[in-house]
Write a structure and sequence with these properties.
The protein has 214 residues and is an alpha/beta fold. The chain contains 3 helices and 7 strands. The protein is globular, with a radius of gyration of 23 Å.
Length: 214
């Protein structure tokens, strides 16, 4: 008869897992933020550093100069992407964005606008990278709700051309100074901006997305 195996002792409580959003020391990105703040002062509205990433929200009217400074002085010469964001809450959890003409109107609310905050419904996000240091920075620019617009950066990054055109087409954001805002995907007579949260997909009233489960 063999002895029974010893009863395992209870393991001590594990330490709390680190919180992703907790402040952390990041000398490289903190130095970049300091350079931006020294150069542009109050035009640097907010920032957030976490998990080796940095988000910086900047004043709309200073966006062109900040993008040029990031490229020419800070070494962020690789343009990764630029795109729009609509923080309007969509109460339709099916994601169909269909329009119920018989339903009572739902009051539009703006959800929390992510890292580094926001001042309204619309934003543009732009990510630039330094290919020598492998550091990236994501800029956020607030836009007005009524006539959303911001300066173009096509003269700083030629690759921003199509990104700005797509954002103009899908969100209705004007890029002041862009050399040729014209449609990439939609016909010229198309009305509305499909990427806005309040744009109804009327075709889905006829044919829902395949596999959609209520």
């Amino acid at each position: 008869m063999t002895d029974a195996p010893p009863t395992p002792t209870e393991a001590p409580d594990a330490p709390d897992a680190p919180v992703d959003d907790a402040p952390e020391s990041d000398p490289v990105r903190e130095a970049l933020l300091q350079q931006l703040t020294t150069q542009f002062g109050d035009a640097i509205l907010a920032s957030h550093i976490a998990r080796g990433q940095i988000w910086v929200r900047v004043a709309n009217e200073q966006w062109h100069d900040i993008a040029a400074f990031a490229k020419n002085t800070l070494g962020f010469r690789f343009f990764n992407f630029l795109g729009g964001m609509d923080w309007l809450n969509n109460p339709n959890l099916s994601a169909e964005k269909t329009w119920d003409f018989d339903a009572a109107p739902v009051e539009a609310t703006v959800v929390a606008p992510g890292y580094a905050g926001g001042a309204g419904r619309f934003q543009v996000l732009c990510r630039l990278e330094n290919i020598q240091t492998h550091v990236a920075i994501t800029f956020k620019i607030d836009l007005g709700d009524d006539a959303p617009s911001l300066p173009t950066i096509t003269d700083v990054f030629a690759g921003a051309d199509w990104h700005e055109r797509e954002t103009w087409e899908m969100y209705g954001f004007e890029f002041n100074g862009h050399p040729g805002l014209r449609h990439l995907y939609l016909p010229g007579a198309f009305e509305g901006f499909p990427q806005r949260k309040d744009f109804p997909l009327l075709a889905r009233d006829i044919k829902p997305w395949p596999g959609l489960v209520d």
